[in-house]
Amino acid sequence: MSDKQTSDWNTRYAREDYLFGEAPNAFLAAQAPRLKAGGTALAVADGEGRNGVWLAQQGLDVLSLDSSAVAQDKARRLAQARGAPLRLELGDLAAWEFPPARFDVVAAIFIQFAGPALRARLFEGMKRTLKPGGLLLLEGYRPEQIAYGTGGPRVVENLYTEAMLREAFADLEIVELKAYDAEIEEGAGHKGMSALIDLVARKPA
Ligand SMILES: C[S@@+](CC[C@H](N)C(=O)[O-])C[C@H]1O[C@@H](n2cnc3c(N)ncnc32)[C@H](O)[C@@H]1O
Fold this sequence. Notes:
Radius of gyration: 16 Å
Strand content: 25-35%
Oligomer: single chain
CATH class: Alpha Beta
Number of helices: 7
Bound molecules: S-adenosylmethionine
Number of domains: 1
Largest sheet: 7 strands, mixed
Shape: globular
Helix content: 25-40%
């Protein structure tokens, strides 16, 4: 990723409050019954850590990866405030080597900074880094989000459709794939009626 893109995210995060809130993403929080304490989790592009910290509070050993140092300082503070151990790594997902079969859970919540080429790399890496039997939890916006204008990139090719996710994760067991519209309130960054898509998928054991 370019220095400019990193600096843009650092600028967006340079504020007192948490741009996407301190509470976990609602879809992720609803997955609590599927999580097993003692496992490992990767929070992909975890930003200010709201999701990584929540996963750590569920008893998972979490690696929170993001390219914004400003966001990671805030993630560190949130983890300390909650007494939740969180491992942080500053990294560029365009180059990051996803270790094979390392994580029981991969959480990818609003990682739509990626256009088609980077998205293909990320999706392959996320699948590779899941252990057999591991769980992928992904939420993003659908193309209909552009009209709502309540968050996310205004670049249609970065957004997800049901057909796209079904094809990209055909080698996983699709546990749930749901496209719907809902009012969300996740900080100032994601606020209002939104066109969402959720995926829960399991890597074959
Ligand atoms: C919309 S935010 C979502 C943050 C977090 N997942 C959440 O839901 O609160 C997208 C995140 O992607 C990160 N990001 C953008 N490009 C990246 C890259 N190439 N490598 C790693 N992180 C990146 C940004 O720093 C930002 O934190």
